[in-house]
Amino acid sequence: MGMKFTLDYWEDEGWYVGRLREVPGVFSQGKTLDELEENIREVYQLMRKEQPIVRRRQRARSKLIAIPA
After folding, report:
1. Residue 16 in contact with residue 9, Cβ under 8 Å?
2. Residues 36, 14: contact at Cβ < 8 Å?
3. Helix (H) or strand (E) holding 49
4. CA-CA-CA-CA dihedral for 51, 39, 9, 57, to nearest 10
5. pLDDT one-digit tens code per residue, 9-26
6. DSSP letter assigned to residue 51
7. Which entry of 12, 31, 41, 45 is 20 to 30 Å from 67 by CA?
8. Helix (H) or strand (E) holding 48
9. How far apart are CA 54 and CA 34, in angstroms?
10. pLDDT per residue over 33-69, tens digit each?
């Protein structure tokens, strides 16, 4: 069984654009939602060949920062 990730997506000028929430840097687009899903899977596989995913999760920390207007 493969890993499961959350696909966040939105429509932008007639295209479906999306990213994998849990994997920074995995973005793509498609004319249909199915095409976007296919493209995201391809991007993930290419990225994984270049940079294997570490399966052990590290505890993430959060910090509130100020950004000038």
Report:
1. yes
2. no
3. helix 33-50
4. -20
5. 999 999 999 999 998 899
6. S
7. 12
8. helix 33-50
9. 28
10. 999 999 999 999 998 887 765 556 667 676 877 778 7
Dihedral class, residue 8 (left if φ above 0, else alpha if ψ from -120 to 50, else beta): beta
Q: Which long-range contacts (CB under 8 A, 24 or more apart) does 8-14 make?
A: 9/33, 9/36
DSSP string across 25-46: T-EEEESSHHHHHHHHHHHHHH
Amino acid at 28: S
Instruction: Give the number of C-alpha atoms closer than 13 A to the C-alpha of residue 25, restricted to the C-beta side.
Output: 8
Alpha-carbon span 47 to 49, nearest angstrom: 5
The residue behind tokens 């290419």 is 46
